[in-house]
Amino acid sequence: MKKYFKILYIIGLSSLLSCALVEKRRQPMEQKYTEYFSVSVEELSALLSEHILNKYELNAEAGGTFTFQTVPSSKPHPFQHKLFIPKEEQRSELTIELADLTSPADLKAGFGQRTRISILKTVESKRGTFQEWVKTPSDGLEEEAILYRLHRLIQLKKSGKL
Q1: What is the pTM of this model?
Q2: Which CATH number fits domain 28-159: 3.30.420, 3.40.50, 3.30.70, 3.30.530?
Q3: Which of 72, 93, 96, 152 counts the most CB atoms within 10 A of its CB?
Q4: Pairwise pLDDT comparison (83 vs 156), residue with the higher score
Q5: Exposure string (b/e) for 129-149, b if CB count within 10 Å is 16 or more?
């Protein structure tokens, strides 16, 4: 009998811990996701537009040379499962900024290119028909997926497989 209580205790404790870890990972975050890459801004911009941003509708007015902004869309994002049904009406917008951090002195000294990418996702939700749009924090999954895909594309390009 003691053996069964021990097993039930272990199962209960592990389920509580796993729920706490999943809940902590899915906390909404209101921040820019920033990463640094050792490629030029032009190469990073080409990879973004060819392989990642071709799934989004871009805003033509916000088209600075290295700023991409998507049109606010109520469609689920490309990395979301097609059977996912949100509890409320949502629309989201991505802003991706590229910045060249390489100075001419760095290039003369033999250092390579350095580029910073910042991704900010704005999510607005509306619960009912007569409600206003309210900004809600992003869960960060789409931003992390884009950064991971960029990292992977750069690795493939450097190895000559892309």
Answers
A1: 0.70
A2: 3.30.530
A3: 96
A4: 156
A5: eeeeeeeeebebebbeebbee
